[in-house]
Structure formats: structure tokens, C-alpha cells
Amino acid sequence: MHDSTGPTPLRTEAPLGPVEFLVLAFPGGHPTRQAMAEVAALQFGGQLRVIDTLVVRKDEYGDVEAIEATHIPDLHEVTAGPDVVNLIGADDAQECANVLEPGWCALLALVEHRWAVKAARAVREGGGHLAAAVRIPPDRVAEARAALAAAGMEG
Fold first, then answer.
1. What is the pLDDT of residues 8-40, one digit of tens each?
2. Is 140:49 a contact under the CB 8 Å cutoff?
3. Residues in contact with 115: Cβ distance below 8 Å, sequence separation at least 6, in sequence order
4. Which residues face 20 on adjacent strands?
5. Cα separation of 52 and 70, whole Å?
6. Strand 48-58 relative to strand 104-113: parallel, antiparallel, unpaired?
7. What are the two backbone dihedrals, phi and then psi, of residue 20, each rounded to the nearest 5 degrees?
């Protein structure tokens, strides 16, 4: 995460769970209301804490615009709160724009996985740390399961 205005302190009274930078891409000019409602539900339910957000839009001509998500009414529930700080910067927006298809937008979100706070604390207290994390798309898992089922190996 890059911030051209300097570091912004993050409230750290409570122990931190794993923090992840997500790029959620959507066709059109803004994230869907339904998707944002589900992210807000995770936040209000205590599973996630949104630390920062930014929306990047690439129009059909390839022109790019970065907008603070707090300025988009449909995203207010996801971006409102005392823990939101400006950590996602112009470099992050440009990197996203480089891979974004024309006519698409992306919600860049820095989130803390609150559901994993106790496990993360136990790992840190044991001298450990997260050494790697890999996201596997659901369609790849479905393909692997189908291949196992076809081979008669799925239990």
C-alpha cells in the first residue's frame, strides 16, 4: 500500500487479524449494490473490518479514474466507520488500472479478517508468522472435485 501523503496511524488497541488487499472487479462503472451489501454484512457481523477502500474505473476508451469509495453513496456502509484510514494510494490504483479491462471498475479494499484474530495472536505468541497465502478460485476447486469424482476418488 502506498500513500503519498505519509503514513496514517491505524487504531491498534485490539489485536490485528490477518490483513488482506483485495481487488474486486465488476463490469460497468461501479460495484454492484448486492455485492457491497454482502461485504457490509461481513463488516457489521464482525468477520471483517474495512481499513481502506478505493474505486478505480476504466472507461471503454481506457481512461482511468480513481475515486474515494466514501464519495459513492452505495459504498457508504462499507467505507463508513472510525477504522477507515487512507492507506491505498495512487500507485495501487495505477497497478489495478494496468490489469483492469476497459468498461470495468474495481473496488480496492484493505480488510482485516477479524474472525481469525485469536488464531493470528496464538501464531504470533508462538513466534510464528504468515509465510504465504494462496487464493484458489472456486471454479478450480469445482474442477478438481469433478476430476476426482470422475476417477472415483472423491469421498
1. 444 455 668 888 999 999 999 888 888 888 888
2. no
3. 17, 46, 47, 48
4. 111
5. 10
6. antiparallel
7. -135, 145
